[in-house]
Design goal:
Blueprint: H1 10-13, E1 14-18, E2 34-39, E3 46-48, E4 51-53, E5 56-60, H2 69-89, E6 97-111, H3 112-115, H4 119-124, H5 152-166, E7 171-176, E8 182-187, E9 190-191, H6 192-212, E10 215-218, E11 232-240, H7 249-256, H8 261-275, H9 277-283, H10 309-319, E12 331-333, E13 343-345, E14 363-365, H11 375-397, H12 402-413, H13 425-434, H14 442-447, H15 452-460, H16 466-506, H17 511-529, H18 534-562, H19 573-577
Antiparallel strand pairs: 1-2, 2-5, 3-4, 6-8, 6-9, 6-10, 6-11, 7-8, 11-14, 12-13
Helix pairs in contact: 2-11, 5-6, 8-11, 8-12, 10-12, 16-17, 16-18, 17-18
Length: 582
């Protein structure tokens, strides 16, 4: 007979799979486990080897989002819809808006041989024990120095850049970071969903290529105690379809024909951060940030906004009804050397202690964790701004002037502006006393996703239903507990299989304390797993992680300090952190 071709274009656009093994958060039962995919046309397809990677949305049979991408795209739609409406009321006609981001990806390289002698790094991504090396980042001599020309890290980074480029992912920056063995990549700015898809592919490439150079790439937020952890700074802006950056005052004024739009947009963003700082904190609550936020490598968990002196003066004057213009002037500075010309500095200095500083044409969400898929981070930024734009537009349509609406918002939410040292304890107390969101506990931050005001926001903006919010919080609790359970099992195994045998052979060390520590860990783990409710289980897991395991670690590190080196079978911090010196 003759062949009959039966092929529809829809076969390229849609697909389905068994979704039963994905976290459900209670959305689906085992016998209703279908997962359905549809291509995301906003993000390019990747080609790697003989495999086509197709960015797609993933939903259940009932239309619930099972992925991170679908809510993100919904939030972009909401922000565009309400932002276009607001700009039209301000006299600026645009077709659409989009969020653009640039992600600074930090990570560690460690020698692979040392990595393979650390069960905790292999299973959990961080060290649950380990005595500090005689040298850490004390001398401040690692940051921004060129990687050693003959070292595996440089060759590995070059190959990562090459493979990423072949997939359409241009990495324009590579450099050392603050801690020994720590590095960073940064790409070009681009559309939010495209940049996130590229970053997810990049993390996979980094881990795979590292093995080819006898290295291991660590992307977890805090793999080592006592030195900086890793972040993924989320540089964020909003642009119109003609490329106009709404956070660039000169460009926006030129293309719109008025300077009155910029302060309205800024007022909306400040009001959004002040009102929904709890959601922003929720979005940066991966387990690894437990050990990172508030230390010298990351801002504290108090949601404030740094504007810089010039912008603060401008918006304060605007708020108070003064006739002001924003005219930041670059600062020519003499180096003091005849042969070197004056350097022109930007109008504002940087503030790395702020979680959400304005950096001129963008905001930088600095507290984001290095291992994160940053879709939820940008979903939150999109939805809270959509809500603020809607609120402003509603008032203007009701008859208020745009200036009056923005002034009222600035007056109500001015407390969110803070240009000082975020690490200073007195400043932190002052900010909290003013009413800024402070959620130090990651589990409490996760709970904010199912807070009534936040579920109402997501539902009104058509980004997440109430059921989806509750389900995602359940998944976050279960993920946290699962991570801690992996860590504590690693710690138990390492004490049993490495620490106690080494101490017995050496004939020195806290053997009785180690045996008692094992009993404590096993009982604590058992108690956590007996708790029925996922949120309460996560709370207990956090106590196990930040109190019990920390105390046990002190005993293990004391044992390492006195055990002869030739008997210690776990890789030490010295062996792991200085891969360019081996």
């Amino acid at each position: 007979g003759n062949l009959e071709w039966n092929f529809s274009g829809n076969d390229l656009l849609y697909g389905q799979t068994d979704g039963s093994s994905y976290p459900t958060g209670g959305l689906r039962s085992t016998h209703k486990a279908g997962g359905y995919v549809i291509i995301d046309p906003t993000s390019p397809i990747f080609l790697r080897g003989d495999t086509i990677f197709i960015p797609s949305c993933f939903i259940s049979y009932n239309g619930h989002a099972l992925d991170e991408k679908t809510p993100l795209l919904r939030s972009v739609d909401a922000m565009s819809r309400e932002g276009v409406r607001l700009l039209r009321l301000l006299g600026y006609e645009v077709e659409s808006l989009q969020c653009n981001i640039g992600l600074e990806q930090e990570f560690f390289f460690v020698p692979r041989a040392a990595y393979l002698k650390r069960p905790d790094l292999q299973m959990a991504g961080r060290t649950v024990m380990g005595r500090a090396a005689p040298r850490g980042q004390d001398m401040s001599d690692h940051y921004m120095a060129p990687p050693a020309a003959t070292s595996p890290p440089l060759a590995c980074m070059q190959e990562i850049q090459r493979q990423a480029y072949l997939m359409g992912i241009p990495l324009i920056t590579r450099h050392r970071e603050v801690a020994p063995g720590q590095y960073e990549f940064a790409p070009y700015f681009g559309f939010v969903t495209t940049q996130i898809d590229q970053n997810i592919m990049l993390m996979q490439i980094m881990e795979e290529v590292a093995a080819q150079y006898d290295l291991a790439c660590l992307i977890q937020e805090k793999p080592f105690a006592g030195v900086n952890g890793s972040g993924k700074h989320n540089n964020w802006s909003i642009a119109a379809n003609d490329g106009t950056n709404l956070f660039d005052p000169k460009q926006l004024a030129t293309r719109s024909g008025t300077s009155e739009i910029f302060p309205v947009v800024m007022a909306a963003v400040l009001s959004a951060v002040d009102e929904y700082g709890d959601l922003m904190r929720m979005s940066i609550a991966p387990p690894g940030n437990d050990f990172r936020l508030g230390a010298c490598e990351a801002p504290p968990s108090i949601m404030s906004v740094y504007l810089g002196d010039s912008m603060t003066t401008y918006l304060a004057g605007y708020k108070d009804g003064e006739d002001v213009t924003y005219d930041p002037r670059p600062k020519p500075t003499c180096v003091g050397v005849e042969t070197v010309p004056d350097i022109v500095l930007p109008a504002e200095d940087r503030n790395r202690t702020s979680p959400f500083p304005y950096g001129g044409h963008r905001f930088e969400f600095r507290a984001v964790g290095s291992s994160q898929n940053v879709s939820m981070v940008n979903t939150v930024l999109g939805v809270i701004c959509a809500n603020a734009f809607k609120h402003f537009a509603d008032q203007i349509e009701a008859g208020e002037s745009p200036r009056s609406v923005a002034q009222k918002a600035l007056d109500e939410h001015w407390k969110i502006v803070f240009n000082g040292d975020g690490y200073d304890k007195d400043n932190q107390k002052e900010l909290v006393d003013k009413g800024l969101w402070q959620i130090d506990n990651g589990i409490e931050a996760m709970k904010r996703l199912r807070d009534e005001k936040n579920m109402n926001l997501f539902e009104e903006m058509k980004v997440l239903s109430r059921e989806e919010c509750v389900a995602r919080s359940e998944v976050m609790f279960d993920n946290y507990t699962g991570v801690v359970d992996i860590e504590v099992r690693c710690m138990i195994d390492m004490i049993n299989q490495h620490v106690i045998p080494a101490i017995r052979t050496a004939g020195v060390g806290p053997l009785d304390e180690l045996k008692q520590a094992l009993e404590t860990l096993e009982k604590a783990r058992h108690d956590v797993l007996q708790i029925g409710h996922s949120d309460e289980r996560a709370v207990a897991a956090r106590t196990l992680r930040l109190e019990t395991m920390v105390s046990v670690r002190e005993v293990c590190d004391k044992a390492e300090a006195i055990c002869p080196a030739h008997l210690w079978t776990l890789s030490t911090y010295k062996e792991m952190l200085f891969c360019e010196k081996h």
